[in-house]
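Format notes (please read before filing issues)

Several people have asked whether sequences and structure tokens are stored in separate files. They are not. Every record keeps both together, in the order shown below: the sequence lines, then the token lines. Line labels are part of the format and must not be stripped during preprocessing.
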Amino acid sequence: MLKLNNLSPSEGARRNKKRVGRGPGSGRGKTATRGHKGARSRSGFSAKPGFEGGQMPLHRRLPKRGFNNIFRREYVIVSLSDLDRFDAGTTVDRRALLDAGIIRRTDGPVKVLANGEISKAVTVDVDKVSSGARDKITAAGGTVKE
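Then the structure lines:
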């Protein structure tokens, strides 16, 4: 019966490791399959990411467009309809949103947008709230802290 302790690969499925640089009789002596001269023949060679052997690399061949603001703040968007799952009178902050699974721990600052409706009076304490969301929360009897 075939079990884990008596498994073996099929005949011819495994090959011996290629041993290079072991003398001329081995057929892989002298340059040890590295060829003559050049960067790849030297020890310690490592090509930079994107290096194409001296050809102009793809990231330099493609046109660059627009402006990429490195100081941009990416907000995590939370809809009002997401907040409707909380009970009335609760404080909805980052911790509550994490526990409810609406946002993840690694996410950035939180912003509530006026997508959907809210019917319960909750206290919202997040980084930003849109004016439309603020109006809907206060109309439902809730309060907003920023």
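For reference, the curators noted about this record: The mean pLDDT is 92. Residues 76-145 form a domain with the Ribosomal Protein L15; Chain: K; domain 2 fold (CATH 3.100.10.10).
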